[in-house]
Every structure is written in structure tokens, then in C-alpha cells.
Amino acid sequence: MDRRIKIRHLQAFVEIVRGRSLKRAAETLHLTQPAISRSLSELEDIVGAELLTRGRGGIALTAQGELFHSFANASLASLEQGLAGLQAFGEDTGSRLNVGALPSVAARLLPPVVDEIAAVAPSMRLRIIDGPHHHLTRLLHDGELDAVIGRLGEPETMHGLSFTQLYMEDVAIVVRPGHPILQSPALARIVDWPVIYPPSTAAIRPLVRRMLVAEGVPLPRNRIETVSVCFGRAKTRDSDAIWIISTGVVAREIAAGELVRLPVETRTTRGAVGLMLRAGEVESSEQRLFIQALERVIRRLRAAGEA
């Protein structure tokens, strides 16, 4: 955009059109009529086109003016909305956002996102619900949630929702340090121990099943199906159970040496993690703030090679 265009130019132009008079525009903006006229002339010189005609019938938009007016009006409205949003977020106005997150996201991504939001809008109430994919998408459909972050689900669960990819994530197979399978790690051997397995409601289950089938590994008979992260962590640390879970859920435990990832190929379980919203709805100020915080955190993770 031409840097010579100032907000005062847009305000003058929009007010002239709204009031169909330079005099009324001057009164609204608390300026003199010559000042308003000068701002309009400067704007027309900058854009290189006549925007308004003046006649006995008053002010009228030219074709170029009609085109420019729609964008000028929208720009000022967006700026006013942004300023109002900043003011509202700085006050205790009861603004709130309900977010659903799959366990891997709740564990890895949301803590820094919450910190980002708190720095901008300390009074905003953030409610976070985790759970299986179908449960969270149903709540989003029903208006109980404003946004969901998780894996791209089956087509029937995504009807009426938009999906914006954030990063890719695979599945990890983890055990406690010193587990017997680590002496000779192989995917086929996991069936010799209890397996904590994704239930039918988990977005990763079809991917895990396809991985096992591709490697000729039968569905573990001694399996515990759950999405409970607390149970998975405790059971895996305290026993010989083997946990199949999204990498993001256990990334910190693996980095700290509390859990060990089996060195087996899980590339086929790689899938998109993204932001889900109700399709066709205008974003609220709270949603926009959340999305921007999310984008900043994702950029940092990518810079660190973690996303």
C-alpha cells in the first residue's frame, strides 16, 4: 500500500460518503471543512483517480470511488474492531473460549499457547476439554466448543467443520527403561506383553491397525483400550505394559528418559494435526486471539525442529 495514505484520508472519505456532505463529515470528525476537502484531494492525488463528484444533488461516488469505498470502509471497521478487542481483553469483561484438544495436543501444545494468551488477555477465561476425536468434534458441532485441535478424522466426523493443518505427528510405541523387549526390539514382539491400545474412538486407531497389518503383526489379544493419558503413563512406568500413543503425549517423558521409544518404524502412522472450527462462521475476537497464539507457538516449535 502507498505509505502516503493515512488513516485521516480514509476517515474523511468514508465520512463524506456516509453523510453525503463535506460539511457533515467535518462536523462528525471535529475538523474544519477545508481540512476535510484537503484530505479528500490528497487521497485522490495519491490513488490517481477521482473518487467523488460534487453537484447540486450533493456528493456522489464515481465508479472508482465505489470500488475504493468498500475496501476503505472495511479497513476502518477492522481497525476499530481490533482496537475494541484489545481494550476488551485488557478488562475483565467475561470473555471466554472453550477449546477441545486431543491428549497429544493438551500435553504438548496448549501449555505455551495458554501462556501466550495470558500475556495479551489475562482476564480471558479459557476452558480446555480433552478426550477422543469423535467426542470433541460432536461438542464442536453442538456449539459446546469454539475450537478443537487434533488429528484429521474420518470424513463422517468432519462434516460441517473446517480443518487447518498445523503440523504432522506420528505414533510412538513406548516402554519403561529396562523393559525386556529393549534387548531385542521388534514390532512383532509387542504381543508378548500387555499392550495399551487406542480404542475405536481414537483418531490414531485406524493408522495403528494398518501399521500392524502391514508388518504382519496380529491385533494384541492382551490389550487395554483407553485414551486415558494418566493411566497410560502410570501403567507403562510401573509394569511391562507397552503403550501405543501419539508422540506428542509422551515427548517430554521420552526426552527425560522416563519412557523409552522402541526403535521401530512407525512412519505409516504419520498424520496431520490441525485446528477445527465450524465451517462458514465468522471468527470471534477470542477465536482470532487463540489462533494467533497457536500460530506463534507452532512457529517456535518448527524453528526448534519439534514440529
From TrEMBL:
**What positions does the domain HTH lysR-type occupy?**
5-62
Task: List UniProt keywords, sorted A-Z.
Answer: DNA-binding, Transcription, Transcription regulation
InterPro entries this protein is in?
Answer: HTH-type_LysR_regulators, LysR_HTH_N, LysR_subst-bd, TF_PcaQ, WH-like_DNA-bd_sf, WH_DNA-bd_sf
Q: Which family does it belong to?
A: Belongs to the LysR transcriptional regulatory family.
| Name of the protein this chain belongs to | Pca operon transcription factor PcaQ
Q: What species is given as this protein's source?
A: Paracoccus aurantius
Q: Where is the organism placed in the taxonomic lineage, from the top?
A: Bacteria, Pseudomonadati, Pseudomonadota, Alphaproteobacteria, Rhodobacterales
Its encoding gene is what? pcaQ
